[in-house]
Amino acid sequence: MAKRTPKTSQLLHPDRSTPWRLPEQLVQRGTKLLTQQCWYWGCDVRRTNGNLLLEHGFSRVRPPTGTSGSSIYQLETATGAHLVVWSFGVFYREAAGRGVFLDRFRFDPYLLDNGLTDAAVFQIEQLPPRRKPGDSDVVQLIAQLADLIGCVIAYEQRIIAEYGLHYREQCLAQWTRQKLALPVDTFLASWDCFRRDLASIRCVG
Asked: What is the share, in percent, of the chain residues with pLDDT greater than 90?
C-alpha cells in the first residue's frame, strides 16, 4: 500500500499553544511497530478459521454496499476507553474527552478534540478535524499513547498465549516487507520498551 499525503488544509486545525512534536527517532520506531502491528491485525481479520478481532471483543462495521474503504473495528476496554482499528490507522480515546489518531505509516499523533463524534469513518479523508498537539497537550497525550500501546500489548499477549509464536511467524512470512520487520519473539518487548521511552521524553519544539 502506497504512503498517502494527508489533506491537511481540510483536516487539520492549528493549535494555539507552542507547537510540539515527537523526536524523529521515536516517530520512526513507532512507525515500524505500528505498521507491523497493522499487518498482524489484517492477518487476524483474514484468518481462515475465524476473525480474531471479532473473537477477542472487537465489533465490526463494514462500509456501505458499493462504498470503498476500510471496515471499522472497535473495542471498548474495561475502563471505558475506546480503541478503533482501520486498515489505515488507529484511534484511541479515554471514556470521555478527546482522542488521538495515528496513521499506519507515520507514528505522528494528531488530536481529535471532539473524538470521532457519531460519524462512521471508512476512509482517512472522513476523519473529523484534527490537529497537531501543543506543549499544553503533552502530558495527556503521552498518557493516552501509553494506554493505547498497553491495549496492543494485551491483545498480542492473548494471541500468542492461544496460538503461539508460530502463528505470528506465519503472519510475518506473508508480508512483502518482512525483511524490514522486527523479530516475532521480541516484538512485544519492543512495544514495551517503546512505551517506556515515550514516558520519558520531554518537549521538542
From this structure: 73
